Amino acid sequence: MARSIAHGERGSAVAPMPVATGPKVLRIGVMQGTRITEERIVRDRSAVTVGATERNTFTIATGDLPPSFELFSIEEGFKKNQTSSYADNTVVGGSRQVLFNNVRKYSVAVVFFPFRTVAQPYFGFGAGILHTVKEYPQGFFGSPAASDTATALADRLGGHGFASFTGGVQFRVNRFIAFGQYQLASAPSGGKLLTGASHAFTAGLRIGLGASREETTGGGY
What is the distance between the alpha carbons of residues 20 and 67, in angstroms, rounded to a whole number? Predict the structure, then answer.
């Protein structure tokens, strides 16, 4: 632990130097046994993929993985002026209305591919965070500080963690993979801006653009 020591005249004081903090990043590694064989730092809000082709975040040459699969995903739904509310005894009726614009979801899952067929089913279990974006509490506030407190409370009540189940199927023809999946996320506890379990249906087309590597390379520890 570092500490600053002030020198000078009696009664003088030196303010502590602020600690510089950078933006938060996602750090992910691949372990084989007890060794970390590959590591990535994801600085932007992009999905993390794993598979047998070079286009993935992590390329692992094994027959048990598809060419590409999304391990960690970030999704956002866009819609302005969605409404919710939370309990507030300073408001007539005891409930303060909140407007918010978007809903963002971070999720990670462990996925199993039980069959190696053209039509390949899969399922998995995971967890994540679902939260609202840009909350605007409505109504009268006695002071700017009260407004700031309400905004901070709405931001806290707008997010919650969830457990999830994912099931789907993908069809592979050469480098093309069509997929469809369903995800069920558990409901939050009471008092949150979002209520009830969430359901998501996703479909798309993946294209493998690279060849698989013979082995995984990287620094070991």
Answer: 41
Question: Is 100 in contact with 193 (CB distance < 8 Å)?
Answer: yes
Predicted TM-score (pTM) of this structure? 0.60
For 97, residues 6+ apart whose C-beta sits below 8 A from its C-beta are 83, 84, 85, 137, 138, 139
Residues 6 or more apart whose CB falls under 8 angstroms from that of 168 comprise: 121, 122, 123, 179, 180, 181, 182, 202
Here the tokens at position 1 are: 């632990």
d(CA 129, CA 160): 6
For the record, the structure tokens of 221 come out as 């520890």
3 state DSSP class of 153: helix
- Considering all CA atoms of the chain, what is the largest pairwise distance in Å, rounded to the nearest integer? 80
pLDDT at 101: 87
CA pair distance 152, 111, nearest whole angstrom: 36
Q: Are 6 and 13 spatial neighbours (Cβ–Cβ below 8 Å)?
A: yes
pLDDT at residue 77, rounded to an integer: 76
For the chain (221 residues), the mean pLDDT of every run of 10, in chain order, is: 41 46 65 74 69 72 64 74 89 90 86 84 91 90 91 92 93 83 91 90 76 42 41
What is the structure's pLDDT at 60?
72
| Distance, CA of 110 to CA of 189 (rounded, Å) | 24
Beta-carbon contacts of 18 under 8 Å, excluding residues fewer than 6 positions away, are none
Amino acid at 91: V
CB 71 within 8 A of CB 106: no
